[in-house]
Amino acid sequence: MSSAREAVLGRVREALRGTERTPLSAVPRDYRRTRPAADLVALFCETVSDYQATVDRVAAAAVVTRLAEVARSAGARRLLIPEGAPQAWSPELAEEFELVGPAADTAALEQVDAVITTAAVGIASTGTIVLDHGPGQGRRAATLVPDLHLCVVAEDQVADDVPAALSRLDPARPTTFISGPSATSDIELNRVEGVHGPRTLHVLVTPAT
């Protein structure tokens, strides 16, 4: 007596009998490299917003002002800015906020209200930000413990899709993929934010440098 699996496979074989198979090399792969979106940056902003993150497009000269406004409105007092971030950020923000050293241990990180980073890549099709923890991005713990993550992404860092983004990354480096603020839900679909990382993600998109 044949199993259900054998019966299904038998029907598939019968349906395929006499048909000509298309070699894998002939299967079009353009979908991996092209996308109908005319404006990748606009698509990136839209998809990031879909994940309940906040997105602002700001001029390069207005970045520090906007960072201060967002931190202030969130009630943040202690900020962490990783090494390698633009030099103009720290002096101006230090006039209003307490800046915590990037080497802060876990206990000190728990007292940090917001972390401000750059990014390695932004993915337009998925609304994802990728950190490879290079200059300006800090170590992973620094972007997971504070309640607010402010991330600055340049327009020329926005890639089309995941394959395009991966081609820009060094596989030897640690990477963190961020799609919106940290969130989870229970069996009744009650959403809880901030369990595994920042409760709030605010992205500033700036012109290409």
From TrEMBL:
Pfam families reported for this sequence: LUD_dom
Domain spans labelled LUD: 109-205
InterPro entries in alphabetical order: FTHF_cligase-like_sf, LUD_dom, NagB/RpiA_transferase-like
Segments passing through the bilayer: none
Gene3D superfamilies in the record: NagB/RpiA/CoA transferase-like
Family matches, as PANTHER family: LACTATE UTILIZATION PROTEIN C
Identification of the protein by name: Lactate utilization protein C
